[in-house]
Predict the 3D structure of the following.
Amino acid sequence: MMAEPDGPEDRLRRFATIWSRAVFPVTSTSSTRPEFEGQLLPLARRLSEALRARAFDQEEAKAVGAALVGAHCTDPEALSRTLDCVDAYLVLYCGHDGDPEHLRARSARLQHAMAAGFAQALRERTLAEQEAIAQAALKAQGVVAQALHASEARFRAVFEGAAIGIGIADLDGNVLQVNGALTRMFGLTDQKLRSRNAKEWTHPDDAPQTWRLYEELVRGQREHYHVEKAFYRPDGTVLWTNLTVSLLRDADGAPRYQLALMEDTTERRLLNLRLRYEATHDALTGLPNRSFFFERLEKALSAGPGQRFGLCYLDLDGFKTVNDSLGHAAGDRLLVEVADRLQACATAPGEMVARLGGDEFVALTTGPDTAHEVDELAGRIMNALLAPISIDGRELTVRGSIGIVEGPAGERSPAEVLRSADITMYRAKSAGGNRFELADPEADARVITRHGLTTALPAALERGEFFIEYQPLVRLGDGTVRGAEALVRWLHPQHGVLGPDRFIPLAEHTGLIVPLGRWVLEQSVRQAREWRERHGGADAAGPLRINVNLSPCQLNHPGLVQDTVDILERAGVAPDALCLEVTESALIGADDDLLKPLRRLAEMGVDIALDDFGTGYSNLANLRRLPVSVLKLDRSFTQSMQQFPADPVDLKIVEGIVSLAHSLDLAVTVEGVETGAQAEQLRILGCDTAQGWYYARPGPPDRLHELALVDASG
């Protein structure tokens, strides 16, 4: 595996090396390959800076494309290889510390601008060459005028042997002479060409100034002009030329003839069009690509007052299954068919469909009434996906999830619109898929905040932004404090104190829950030791104990047992001072491999509590096989006991659970105790310990020590 370069300059040089190796074989240069690499390095640096610039500057990328022509990279293959290198390696080597999705979109736009700059520079180079010919023709006007009597043979040789088309006409436009190159370009005989008048050669694509320049020349008001002009051939095809027309004067300086020099640029123009198409269209489906779509979206969002836009962001449901089961070739054919159907849905003015990549497509509509039109467009797309698609003899059902964003132009950037559409699409997918949802600013804000918290989690742990609060566990029989549950909090710099429900699921998703859980366990065990030392060690009623929650991810981590042993030994705390709480849902259907670490911990003397008991619908008979010593009854069973009289059904349920637990030699802890009547009822029912706001809210460790001292003095 190749080692990654150390720093930005190393990565930049690596990119320049790859670029030079790809392009050098098709470059007409006398330089060596290392010398050629030295020429490309500053161009690579300009691309890198343009990639990471705050605002997109297409002129910088155009300048790089033009510089390629200056470095003799004029072969179309050189441009093709350059675009391939930029597409594959620019973001990889020069896009460090940036949003990959944004950088890939920026890279695609840079490629398009480079291709445009390359084509423009190549054209200007050709024009310069033609201009040189025109200047030579102007300088030779006297020679041409005298060629009738002094150098007719030499002029005829140049005239007939020229590689470009040459024609001479009078000032009325009547063609007098043409050379062989011109007849071949038009596909006409000499006689046919000379029977034409220059004024007849109009074309719909003529630039507005073309015929104005012609009239000025034949009136003697200008000596020459240069334009890009199209001509119709007899077979209906179009001939594109670089046309230079010069005025020929007689010995007295009076205008006599017009001299036309034509270079056939049809193939070059087709190449430029192909490069433009390839830079703006998806190679697989032929739809506009991400770069082209962003151009259209930017234009739609910058439209004038009263204009609106509507965007549908489509992601196919279950497309990965098709790739995994039938292969990527089948997946590609499926995407092509989907693209064809989507294209048929967006045929009205102001509508377009593009492929962003993978199985993600977008449809855009613009105009004054997009609120209604975008809903209809989404409906057409959903209907278009209803019919099965036949791939390799299999009928595949295709479904999709669509996020819709609609609004007035000028209020949001393209990136903000696409982000909102992406978020909304995933909301539709989370709701079961095969549906479309409308963007909701509040839902967007929640997702953005969630993403921000997720990305901030690792640094927050390193910066020490987490802290622990402790909620007392009270013995119902005598009201003494027997320990506490450790509850982690996040002191976020912007959002303030966040409860575990805000960030524990994110830590689970990212895997950070393992180091975070290890830190919580270490801090809690150290606090338990301090409590024991301040409380005078173990008393007759037993030592203070700390309860720490374990997530399902931690249960599956191979280092759970060893980490726990190491933390207890370093703190000098006996295993019986620790109780690990595991949710009932995490142990439903657990096999022996999952239970083995818990059994080892229980054998060491660590208590295992089954948290939120009663919410997971587990089989009560399974309690016998679980290595638990405590049941923590979920608060939903005891909420009715806050009022008098309590629901008799709830009383019977709790009484039955307590009886069953005690028969299995399990202690019962109750959460969410908020009133004295509730606490008394639970004591009568035989519950062992309780926690809740009635006793104390979660707080700093010193509060528990004070409560324990009050119990001891009482």
Observations:
- DSSP finds 26 helices and 21 strands in the chain.
- The longest strand covers residues 238-249.
